[in-house]
Amino acid sequence: MGTEILERRFAAIGARLNIVGPQVGAPRIDVDSGTFDIRFAGSGRQVELEVVDIDSADRHLLLLVRDGDEKSKFLCGHDERHWFVAAVPEDTRGVTGVAAAKIALQPELVRTAVRRTRPKHPLRRRNSAYVRQGEWFFVAAPDLDPPAGLVLRNEPLSRGRGKAHMIEFAYRRGGHVVWANRRHPSGISDARYRRLSAKERQNGGWTRFVADPELFARGAIRHPDHATIVLRGWHRVVMNTEQGARAMRHVVFLD
Questions:
Q1: Any idea what DSSP says for residue 24?
Q2: If you ran DSSP here, which 8-state letter would residue 58 be given?
Q3: CB 119 within 8 A of CB 127
């Protein structure tokens, strides 16, 4: 698809497209203030770009990137107060349009809630199945009654980069212990940590964390790029599926 056509497709959702250099090598997609910059590594195969679907009213489009035999799809658009790009997991089949891409980005807990409650508007940010703020989904957990002493206040919620969402009341359960330091920022298992010598444990600058716990939220959820939502009861917190996409390595966030 030619550059001029691509630019018109992005303009249809109110965005600008800036393709830098020849379309050769691995792409890199930056998004900032309504401009989608696509740059390329400069060596390797010719890369093809195609907008396969547009939802002008919702200001979203689905971008297909062909890099040899590898195909990646990106949902690009505007959500409340900011522009975003999210990679669609490659193992999701039948993603040929914007609506299908949004469903593919829903985690299984959310899809189960949608099947159970059958909301009239299943892709809206708030419906009978879930509430969404950016990449985070909140699914009601009406039977949860956590011990008051374990409830945290004003807890940050982040995927590890960008501005954090702030949870008024949070509760975590389950998960597994990991130990992290400067050499092991992603952490090592508790079993591996206990196999270290006493000297290695004492002098290693280790910090104990709990990885992959279930997270629940209640009250106000705030973020500068999104309208504040208020959860009247406890809700399970889950992130969308974009982190499971190999193509996320092509996305850069400037927020």
A1: B
A2: T
A3: yes
